[in-house]
Amino acid sequence: MNDRIRVVPVAGRLIRKLDRTPLAAAGEMVDDDTYWRRLERDGDVTIEPIAADVESESLATTAEVETNNKPRNHRQQRDAEA
Fold it and tell me: Do 33 and 39 meet the contact criterion of CB atoms below 8 Å apart?
């Protein structure tokens, strides 16, 4: 089961997220939670699973950021550890 889902409000409904901000009419990616499942059951939102390629793309972006933050040579690494 995915930890993230895409939630889209039914047309004409203003749905608030757990932090009380409005959910975008086009939908948003949120953490999978019983709150969203209840709203889906009540017919207020539709839930779409996140495609695997979107998840892997976000993981690749995270890996790039982590890679770019590594020291370029042993001297920078030694200075970073000090």
Answer: no
First to last CA, the chain: 42
Q: Taking Cα atoms as reference points, which of 52, 9, 55, 1 lies closest to residue 28?
A: 9
Both structure tokens of 74: 């042993």
| CB-side neighbour CA atoms (13 Å) of 70 | 7
Tokens 């839930």 correspond to what residue?
A: 47
User: pLDDT tens digits, residue range 20-60?
Assistant: 999 999 999 999 999 999 999 999 999 987 776 655 555 44
Helices and strands (H, E) in the chain, number of each type: 3, 3
Among candidates 14, 15, 50, which has minimal Cα distance to 35?
A: 15
Place of tokens 């930890």: 3
How many CB atoms neighbour CB 5 within 10 A? Answer: 21
